[in-house]
Write a structure and sequence with these properties.
By secondary structure, the protein is an alpha/beta fold. The protein has five helices and ten strands. The chain is globular and about 40 Å long.
């Protein structure tokens, strides 16, 4: 998949015009924040985990980390990240461009972590390692077809 397929997918929601492409890499939270000119916490990173025969995507604020206890309480299993090959197989997106959009595999469920609720807008990747899309939380919720808001993260030390 690519930024073009994500842009096409976002047309259904009237959000295709919000995709931004960069001349530089946005493959990490820090690089994405620098490319987009925002604080790292506003980058909506998409973390991918194996759960049973499927996968879950947890979209979280850039300064959040998975809280293993909360994760296990929610999903009934230890947090086990997908390998780069599994990420592509499940999501169609490569690491660095993983997003909760245009996911073809019906065994993948997206969730939104409450760590993002501090912001009016967040910036998830848009299918490539040099793109993002600027969305309100409501737009993200609709476009990701998320299963809802969850609380499975903790903020990094020194962040409030």
């Amino acid at each position: 998949m690519s930024v073009d397929s994500v842009r096409e997918y976002l047309k259904e929601f009237g959000l295709d015009g919000k995709v931004k492409e960069f001349e530089v890499s946005s493959a990490t939270v820090e690089l994405a924040a620098e490319a987009a000119g925002v604080i790292p916490a506003r980058i909506a990173k998409t973390l991918s985990f194996k759960v049973g025969e499927g996968a879950v995507l947890v979209v979280a604020a850039g300064d959040a980390k998975i809280d293993n206890r909360k994760y296990k309480d929610k999903f009934g299993t230890k947090a086990k990240m997908l390998t780069p090959e599994e990420v592509i197989a499940y999501t169609g997106h490569a690491v660095g461009g993983v997003c909760p959009f245009d996911i073809k595999d019906g065994r993948v469920t997206a969730y939104l972590d409450i760590s993002m609720k501090r912001f009016d807008t967040v910036l998830p990747a848009a299918g490539s390692d040099s793109s993002c899309v600027v969305l309100t939380l409501e737009e993200l919720e609709k476009a990701s077809r998320s299963a809802g808001w969850i609380d499975v993260c903790k903020l990094s030390e020194g962040v409030s």
